[in-house]
Write a structure and sequence with these properties.
This protein has 194 residues and is of the alpha+beta class. Helices cover 23% and strands 8% of the residues. The chain has helices at 32-36, 42-50, 143-151, 164-181, 186-189; strands at residues 79-81, 116-120, 136-142.
Length: 194
């Protein structure tokens, strides 16, 4: 199993097996990095420009699957951060833990620790990268699953239910969320006699 620089596990054998697409890949199969940030790697941008900015991994979008000559690991600018799952229509659905399915509950104007955290699946391959991940690959985990993955042999793809403590915290936040959204008239909120 992959490990962090400090030796804890990340919960997967191959981080690239958990990748749907690169964050820089457009729906038209183009490399957004080469178009928008080409000055950071002119040689890469020139090569993509010669190919009409076609992603070298995605290949021809008319064909099923990834048909390009590269794998995700071959691209120097690959990045895949999970900001929420996509539904069948391609829209971003609510964020939830990739392991247990606990949904995010964020209260406006609250400094409470979030229920969900970003979990890195890839780390530096050598000292040449100064400790930065070779490619940024992340998934979203609830803080309880995040702890289990780093502190034991728990895996990202385990079939588990949320912890009782996680459910209790999420329900507490849901109740406070409903209280915030509850409508009361001005007459109910303010005592007119005083």
């Amino acid at each position: 199993m992959e490990k962090t620089p400090t030796g804890t596990t990340v919960g997967v054998d191959d981080p690239y097996a958990h990748v749907d697409r690169c964050d820089h890949l457009t729906d038209a199969g183009k490399c957004r990095f080469a178009v928008e940030q080409g000055d950071r790697d002119p040689a890469f941008a020139d090569a993509r420009s010669a190919e009409a900015f076609q992603c070298p991994v995605a290949g021809d979008l008319d064909e099923e699957g990834l048909t390009g000559p590269w794998e995700w690991a071959d691209c120097p600018h690959f990045r895949c951060r999970d900001h929420g799952r996509r539904d069948k229509g391609g829209a971003t659905a609510s964020r939830e833990c990739a392991r247990c399915g606990l949904e995010a509950r964020r209260l406006a104007h609250s400094d409470e620790r979030p229920l969900l955290e970003e979990h890195h699946l890839s780390y530096a391959d050598s000292a040449e990268t100064d400790g930065d991940p070779s490619h940024e690959i992340t998934v979203v985990l609830c803080r309880w699953c995040h702890s289990k993955v780093h502190d034991s042999w728990a895996r990202i793809d385990d079939d588990v239910n949320p912890d009782a403590e996680a459910i209790a915290e999420a329900e507490s936040r849901r109740a406070r969320e409903q209280d915030e959204l509850d409508f009361s008239s001005a007459a109910e909120r303010f005592d007119r006699d005083g």
